[in-house]
């Protein structure tokens, strides 16, 4: 490539100043002397040209290939329907067509989901993929996408290049889909009260109404037909404390894009207004205050405590009007208000004919309908006044054998207790023997049903738990838990044990024997399966797209099986193990990628046309074939697309391999000769005039 270059012998500002002077003198000479002054103007011009020092520059250039960026949209919305197959076919066809263009280098750039809930970021991926490419080497940009893009610049100036932009849209114009959208979803609710959820079914190509199934903790509550595009309300009862998982699922349409947005999950945290506990102490003893202090220290517990200080058989002749003790309100507690209590504790209570048989029957009915009782037994449990001799006997898990063992012993956690959340990992249990103090008494009992979690002297059962229909029963066969509280022989974990025991009875979800839990960190899902069995079956994991996978579990601790899996999809994941169900959300609960799932050509059209490019579909309704336009190099003109072709604009980019410079003047020597000839011409002209 040949060109003219200049290397001025004087600073540029001096050269421009001399040029201005030469022009001014030439004009004055022409006005005063006429055409003869042209010779002087030419001479002065040659002086300026010599000062500019012109030279012929010959560059040895090597033409480089033009870059065409092809951005492949691999976001979540591109996984719907047959879009993945369409995208792969378009990519293969583009690779084949670029192979016939010798001076074009295609650069394929993959765009995944944006961070967090950023959606599809094609222009960001394009900018990152072309960071090492000069803008003048870019001949064109091709997007292979469904058209749902969330980072489109507001103007063509924000692109940073002048090449044409073409978009090849996957998907079809006749797509149909149905989704459920939450309008109002409560986060908290009072246990036993109803909460209202408002939602709406949105559809395209639907039937106008759909069947909605409502589940709570995996159990079907109701099914009802709901009109589309109209808000509707549902009342759901909060059954228990902790997380109540309410699931709304709308039936799918035939051939719809995805079922991932047909379901919405509302986790509602159940809050008890107050956990009401009735503590009935049979007689004052050293451990009575331990229970009272434990329950009073919990701000969520409303404690009602009675101690039987004056049994009916005590007749000492004291006038009634001189007694300061109140009467035990048996009828009010065990008949009228028994269902208001979440837990009833009988602490060393003996049957002293205070409670008639009908009241014990009320207690049994209360338990079987969902209540809970704890029997903290002492020597009275082995006597004729034992609660096991009343009508409570059918629900008490153990029957006394009449023995009372009074000797020092350390409570041990049984093999079953190692797996139960109430006694697993009690502080001190990791050693053998356990690192806690001794107890001094245990009541002999024959366990008939339930799980024995702790044992005492001579391997006698110490703590037994039992489920009775909807309710729960616990039997603690010693009244010496207070020794741990008083620090006897360095004490023991009485707070952990008794608090866990009370909360298990009151159905704390974290203490359930059979439970399935899941949590997410980034795209990693941690699965926990609590079970009393020695093994745990694999968990079925259902991704938002409906794809199912079986996840094997490994035992991390007795009764606790875990697994860690990575998810490639954003959205709500469902985990099932038998009748247990859990939910975990990767990323936002309602990701942008699934809020608008229909492919479209409108979003990218303004920016593409502003660059001279085009937007077109690669497949039409009812047509299974894929059409990819031809790629042509357009060297001139403004039209860069046609009915079956798209254009790229080649550049003149090249790499300079060498440069040769040929001076057109002789430097200062030529300048001296030129000045001398000019002066000679001036002198000759002056003499001739004289």
Task: Explain what the structure shows.
With 690 residues, the chain is an alpha/beta fold. The chain has 5 domains: 2-61 and 656-687, no CATH class; 65-170 and 601-648, von Willebrand factor, type A domain (Rossmann fold); 177-269, Immunoglobulins (Immunoglobulin-like, Sandwich), CATH 2.60.40.10; 275-509, Class I glutamine amidotransferase (GATase) domain (Rossmann fold, 3-Layer(aba) Sandwich), CATH 3.40.50.880; 515-586, Immunoglobulin-like (Sandwich), CATH 2.60.40. 21% of the residues lie in helices and 34% in strands. It is built from 13 helices and 36 strands. The strands form 9 sheets. The protein has an 8-stranded mixed β-sheet. Strands 4-3-5-6-33 form a 5-stranded parallel β-sheet. α3 links the parallel β3 and β4. The chain crosses the membrane at residues 12-31, 38-57, 661-684. InterPro entries: Class_I_gatase-like. Keywords: Membrane, Transmembrane, Transmembrane helix.
